């Protein structure tokens, strides 16, 4: 009897641990929750949490609740890589919702690939991100398209003939997008009057802007992240530059207007969705998001939500929870009705979707036009 009791005492906690683990599906996420791109991580995590809360309320995936492990990469490539390692080796996640910033996805996706853990980036647009391997996916369009969108808008809608470029040389996303813009703008008969650079963390852009002013461009393409773009807008106006600034999705943050103030108003950027859409999928999402967080979701929140829903659907369809099974189902994603559009993952594991052009107007984001691939 004593023996039996003793063995029960030893075995019960094991059984309990086992049941607890069997009842949940652990999914990892990492992103910048602090640092100069903090709104990227904060927003996409809000979208991801909203999606998993809804899924859990409806019974979970395969009858199991999703347990989301979130890690802060502080906006640093090395931290992104170590977050992915920890999620895989310590938390034993079945899949990872990857980073927003392309540089951080490029630094961490190879680790997921080598462990055969599916990795889905909500918002990294640099083409190299999914080239890492067959376990790496994204639910957004890529920069060869995004750069074309702004080149087309500049030449056709704004009738820009001479453009200047100001790129963040330490940012893979910024460099890639700038290169595509230059190429596409020239193809359309435009002239690049100067192509200058800065580095994230810089606060004084007057030297570059003075040079740009001397070339008198019709527009300035600044494909950076919101913190520097806000400062660049301020300093451009202080120097008397009136030409519009043009940019990409890296502008999309409420902080852009807080930093850029009135100087950022009237400028244009390409993005993944518009809050002005009347599509019920969008209006419904905005309503639920506002009810939960009391704020309007930016594109990252919408992409995070779509990434989580697409991953959950793939896990639900997969015959088991192995990386291979989940990966194979992710690759079959077709016509998924997302908030950011209809999502089909192509043979490169990228989504092909339209982009919108947005004009900044204080905290408002005015929808200007949609450009389809
Ligand atoms: N596309 C950006 C990158 O690859 C990230 C981003 C997406 C930022 C959407 C804001 C909004 O680095």
UniProtKB/TrEMBL annotation:
Transport recorded as keyword: yes
Source superkingdom: Bacteria
InterPro entries with a match to the protein in the record: BCAA_transport (IPR051010), Leu-bd (IPR028081), Leu_Ile_Val-bd (IPR000709), Peripla_BP_I (IPR028082)
Record's keyword annotation contains Signal: yes
Signal peptide (residue range): 1-16
Domain Leucine-binding protein: 25-362
Listed Pfam families: Peripla_BP_6
Annotated keywords: Amino-acid transport, Signal, Transport
Family: Belongs to the leucine-binding protein family.
Name recorded for this polypeptide: ABC transporter substrate-binding protein
């Amino acid at each position: 009897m004593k023996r039996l009791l003793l063995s029960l005492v030893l075995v019960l906690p094991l059984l309990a641990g086992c049941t607890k683990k069997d009842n949940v599906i652990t999914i990892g996420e990492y992103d910048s929750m602090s640092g100069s791109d903090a709104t990227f991580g904060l927003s996409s995590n809000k979208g991801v949490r909203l999606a998993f809360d809804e899924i859990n309320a409806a019974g979970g995936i395969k009858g199991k609740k999703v347990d989301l492990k979130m890690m802060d990469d502080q906006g640093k490539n090395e931290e992104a890589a170590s977050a992915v390692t920890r999620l895989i080796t310590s938390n034993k996640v079945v899949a990872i919702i990857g980073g927003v910033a392309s540089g951080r996805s490029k630094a961490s996706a190879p680790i997921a690939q080598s462990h055969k853990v599916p990795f889905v980036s909500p918002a990294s647009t640099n083409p190299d991100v999914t080239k890492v391997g067959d376990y790496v996916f994204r639910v957004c369009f890529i920069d060869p398209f995004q750069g074309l969108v702004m080149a087309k808008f500049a030449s056709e809608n704004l009738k820009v003939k001479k453009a200047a470029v100001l790129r963040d040389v330490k940012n893979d996303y910024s460099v890639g997008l700038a290169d595509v813009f230059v190429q596409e703008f020239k193809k359309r008969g435009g002239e690049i009057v100067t192509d200058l650079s800065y580095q994230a963390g810089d606060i004084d852009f007057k030297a570059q802007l003075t040079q740009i002013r001397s070339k008198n461009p019709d527009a300035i393409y600044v494909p950076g992240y919101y913190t520097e773009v806000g400062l660049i807008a301020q300093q451009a106006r202080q120097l008397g530059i009136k030409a519009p600034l043009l940019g990409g999705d890296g502008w999309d943050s409420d902080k852009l207007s807080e930093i850029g103030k009135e100087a950022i108003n009237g400028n244009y950027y390409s993005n993944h969705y518009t809050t002005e859409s009347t599509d019920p999928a969008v209006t419904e999402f905005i309503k639920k998001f506002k009810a939960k967080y009391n704020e309007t979701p930016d594109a990252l929140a919408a992409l995070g939500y779509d990434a989580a829903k697409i991953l959950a659907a793939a896990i639900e369809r997969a015959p088991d929870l192995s990386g291979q099974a989940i990966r194979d189902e992710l690759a079959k994603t077709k016509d998924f009705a997302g908030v950011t559009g209809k999502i089909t993952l192509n043979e490169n594991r990228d989504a092909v979707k339209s982009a919108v052009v947005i004009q900044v107007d204080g905290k408002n984001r005015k929808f200007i036009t949609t450009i389809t691939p």
